[in-house]
Prior knowledge:
By secondary structure, the protein is an all-alpha fold. The protein has helices at residues 2-18, 22-28, 34-45, 53-57, 79-83, 86-92, 94-111, 113-123, 153-170, 176-192. The chain has 10 helices and no strands.
Amino acid sequence: xxxxxxxxxxxxxxxxxxAADKIAExxxxxxxxxxxxxxxxxxxxxxxxxxTCLKCHGAGGHGGDQVGAADLRHPRTWRSYQAxxxxxxxxxxxxxxxxxxxxxxxxxxxxxAPTWNLRFAKSHKDIEMDWSKVTIPDKxxxxxxxxKGITSGPMKKxxxxxxxxxxxxxxxxxxxxEQKDVAAVATYLYVRSFDDGSDKAGVFK
Length: 205
Ligand code: HEC
């Protein structure tokens, strides 16, 4: 009985932690260096074709074709940054804030906005998002469904090519789920390098 109560108590502590950034946790276990991840992110982001990161957001994260696509040089303008409470909450505890932001964006890139909108809040109750703080006019209480992340046909093809190259380089065969995890973490790592240090950015640098 005592063991059972102990396990339940432990569960209460461990569960919120598990609800955190599962995608990043899985990738951390894969033993891929940050340099490798960055290179993978760079290649995937710059994949050409319709409905790719590059097409919608543009080279360097701005000037792409998609109306309403976030300017990736300016993270303070992003929906996640604002909904998490913006500057005030960021300045109070930068590490916790950035961890929540990464959790949100990894799922967004991996699953795309339509699935994120349906599921994220339910499975991440520990992350407080206040959509009333978001100043982006369209669809203020959810992500714009055009944010497809890696879910389009050309991005899926790019993921397969990445996995083939990774296997040739490292001898490790990534399963389809693992490819998606790696792609989400790698592209977000690459995107953070676009931060231009201006008043609208200054989050990652
Ligand atoms: C079909 C167009 C499209 C594609 C493909 C796309 N995006 Fe986006 N992205 C958007 C739009 C539109 C937004 C703005 C979403 C919003 O404000 O609701 C966005 C927002 C973002 C954001 C900001 C998230 C936030 O919290 O506001 C990041 C980061 C991002 N995209 C990265 C990527 C990456 C990396 C890829 C490729 C793996 C990608 N996007 C693919 C259209 C796209």
